Structures are given as structure tokens and as C-alpha cells.
């Protein structure tokens, strides 16, 4: 459930930070034991995340998001999150 809250917070942050951007792609599937979503905006922001319930209390989530920084650099963050924490890898 924590990841669903984080997901909603991230989507809201993208939306408010990019009021002029339009949604190019928006897909989501949410089930009791797994979820998946993809989002792409006209300002080159893309996000993908999927997760599944590993046991009754722990989720395993992987995903990525990418954007163009204010300096014009392409940034891509790939991550996993599990009961051992959040593990990002940043490419610039």
C-alpha cells in the first residue's frame, strides 16, 4: 500500500510541475497482489513502474522515470524497491 501512495504522489508531482504538458500515454493496472503503470507526457517526461506482493507484508517494485533537466540533459533513473530499501541508478 505504501508504494501505491508513493505512486499517486509522484503522479501528482509530475502533473503540478508540468501544467502545460499533455498526456501522451497513460496506462495502469492495479490488482490486489500486483500493479503496473506507464505515463508519458509531451514534455519528454516518462515513467514506468510495476510491483508485486512478495509476501503478505512486502512489495517488490521496479521502475524507471526519465526527463530533460533545466540544463537540457537527459536524466534516467532506474530503481528497485523492496524490504531492504530503495535502490536507484541514475544515468545522465
From TrEMBL:
Matching entries from Pfam families are given as:
Chitin_bind_4
GO MF term (any one)? structural constituent of cuticle
Q: Does the keyword Metal-binding apply?
A: no
The protein's name: Larval cuticle protein 9
* Keywords annotated in UniProt: Cuticle, Signal
Source organism per entry reads Stomoxys calcitrans (Stable fly)
Region forming the signal peptide: 1-17
Signal as UniProt keyword: yes
Where are the coiled-coil regions? none
